[in-house]
Amino acid sequence: MSATGGDGRTERLLEVKDLTVGFPTRDGTVLGVDGLTLNVGSHERLGVVGESGSGKSVMGLAILGMVLPPGRIMGGSVRWKGENVLDEAVANRVRGREIAMIFQDPMVSLNPLKTVGAQLRELLQRRVGLQGSAIKQRSLELLDMVGIANPGDRLKSYAFELSGGMRQRVMIATALACDPTLLIADEPTTGLDVTIQDQILTLLHNLSTELGVSVLMITHDLGVVAQFCDRVQVMYAGRIVERAPIAQMFADPQHPYSLGLLQSVPRVDQAAAELAGIPGEPLDRAQFPPGCAFEPRCGEAHDTCRGAPPPLVKIAERRWVACYNRPGEAGETST
Amino acid sequence: MLRWLAKRIIAAALVVFVVTSLVFVVTHIFTDPATVSLPLEASQEDRASRRASLGLDRPLSVQYWDFLSGLVVGDLGESFFQTQPASKLVFERLPATLRLVAGATAVTVLMAAPMGMLAAWWERRFADHAVLGFSMASISAPPFWIGYLLIIVFAVQLGWVPTFGSSGFKSLILPSFAIGLASAGRLAQMTRRGIVEELRKPYAVTAMSRGFSRSYTIVHHTFRNVASGFVTMTGWEVTRMFTGYTVVIEVVFSWPGVGRLAVEAINDRDLILVQAAVVVLATMVVLTNLLVDIARRLIDPRVDLA
């Protein structure tokens, strides 16, 4: 069997299988991530797209074996180059060094009371093992790499003295400090000015190409996905509903939810077309329907949809959909 | 930093001025030191002569000026009862109170910081519940009762330390704990809450996602961010020690401090001496706040320089 990348050129790095994360509430356990399956290969830029509350951010941390209390990982596996990341000893080795994460809000993701230099130093010292002048040299190199002018001065700056774009650049520098193989970017451009968004995406794109770092881009923004990713997975209510190479997703979305997402994006090249929304509200996670989670909002729903959640099935080469109306090739369920 | 410091010191001096003026207003306008110091059955003539001997028959503005100019050179008037300068009596007692507050503050900080960090580290586990239990117990027990309990167990039963008085380091231990336990309980809970809250913040999650352990993140990332609040709360506790706890505990332990002096002065209806004690304790409170401001400025570069 080939890698999920499909073309056989890529080495499989990250394999997430049936990952389930639950949060206890008064009304019982709510699943933030529900049987998630996902693979990232080397030199790949995979997008995970979904609306807020779809479990994207929970997923990002859970891949590192981290869940904010009171949540916990209830099942499934996360393997990094074959090793079990849910094992704490493996996780300690992998976190930061192999898989590094950057977060949505660079305003608050840097320690407000430590200088940029101090935050890089502790990583280089404790996680990489550099010493003496090598630390400063590497710090300057990292800041330079992420396009920060006067890196020498910036080492002494606190986060509150930097602009939003600069902070995200510093975040990226700290993520790259330990030479990771995979970067998980959780909404890295949300909250930044549009021009800065573009700069940060371009920077991430260039860095991933130059350094050969794979990127798992978690976003609600299809524009980001279109600009950045090779492949995309659409997430709804903690589950993957569709997986496709980027061009095919935009040309021919299969899942009714993907279709709705694409239709709700304004496009400047199609004048006068009315913007379509997806009817209904995003799900209240405590009130999952037993069947397909999208069923209450779906125009194509029928009785089968209310029974059990549809499995993710292969409908064509490199294309997977979880919908009863898109029957797949026999015997090919989710990898 | 120096300009900022100068401003803070001037502001502190202003507060001392206002507080002492308020003390003057209370003792000279709302009450009459002469009447208070005399027996109830004293005659009008007695009162008038006492007023004259104390200079209370002069215009208020003159008295106020006298009070202020006396204050500048450390003259807080004369105690009627002990016929000695009030400032001398208070300053004789001040070192004992300062020792007690220092001891209690050490107990507070050295217990609260580790307990708070431990409880946060083991959030919702046994250690967390144990720290919470200690805090609830120490906060709900009145300091004088804790004091008696400590005396009975450690001084009477075990005989490890003296039961009362101020003689060397050993005698400082029990009263310091009697005051510090409740403060430590409050501060430990605040520290725990602060750290648990900080641990959910993106910068702490980021640190842990880079592979730093929970304990490293607590000590090197989140504690720094709660330190500013920790110092502020410690300052409040010290303030309450000066204005309340030491008074009670000095009585319980027969500790020769300003608090007990103030209680004696109140029993003697020695208003001038009470006034002197209040002025000195209030000054200590203002100094404490000044120190807190300086410490916060050193911890957090974002604290406004204004």
Shape of chain A: globular
Largest sheet: number of strands, sense, barrel closure of chain B: none
Oligomer: heterodimer
Helix content range of chain A: 25-40%
Low-confidence stretches of chain B: none
Beta-strand portion of chain A reads 15-25%
Helix count of chain A equals 11
Low-confidence stretches of chain A: 1-8
Instruction: Please state the structural category of chain B.
Output: mainly alpha
Given the helix and strand composition of chain A, which structural class is it?
alpha/beta
Main sheet properties of chain A: 8 strands, mixed
Q: Number of helical runs of chain B? A: 12
Helix-strand pattern of chain A: EEEHEEHEHHHHHEHEHEEHHEE
Radius of gyration of chain A: 21 Å
Mean of pLDDT of chain A: 86
Report on this model:
The complex is a heterodimer of chains A (335) and B (306). Chain A is an alpha/beta fold and 335 residues long. Chain A is built from eleven helices and twelve strands. In chain A, the strands form two sheets. An eight-stranded mixed beta sheet of chain A has the order 6-7-8-3-9-10-12-11, sandwiched between helices. In chain A, strands 2-1-4-5 form a four-stranded antiparallel beta sheet. Chain B is an all-alpha fold. Chain B contains twelve helices and no strands. In chain B, helix 11 (258-267) packs antiparallel against helix 12. Chain B is globular, with a radius of gyration of 23 Å. The mean pLDDT of chain B is 89. The chains are: A alpha/beta (335), B mainly alpha (306). The A-B interface holds A 61, 64, 66, 68-69, 92-97, 100-101, 103-105, 108-114, 122-123, 126-127, 158, 160, 171, 174-175, 177-178 and B 123-124, 200-203, 205-213, 216, 220-221, 224-225, 299-302.
Walk me through the topology.
The complex is a heterodimer of chains A (335) and B (306).
Chain A: E1 12-25, E2 28-41, E3 45-49, H1 56-63, E4 72-80, E5 83-84, H2 88-94, E6 99-102, H3 106-109, H4 116-128, H5 133-145, H6 151-154, H7 164-176, E7 182-186, H8 194-211, E8 214-219, H9 222-228, E9 231-236, E10 239-245, H10 246-251, H11 256-263, E11 313-316, E12 319-321
Parallel strand pairs in A: 3-8, 3-9, 6-7, 7-8
Antiparallel strand pairs in A: 1-2, 1-4, 4-5, 9-10, 10-12, 11-12
Helix pairs in contact in A: 4-5, 5-7, 7-8
Chain B: H1 2-30, H2 33-37, H3 44-53, H4 60-72, H5 86-121, H6 126-140, H7 143-157, H8 168-199, H9 202-209, H10 214-252, H11 258-267, H12 271-299
Helix pairs in contact in B: 1-12, 5-6, 5-8, 5-10, 5-12, 6-8, 7-8, 7-10, 8-10, 9-10, 10-11, 10-12, 11-12
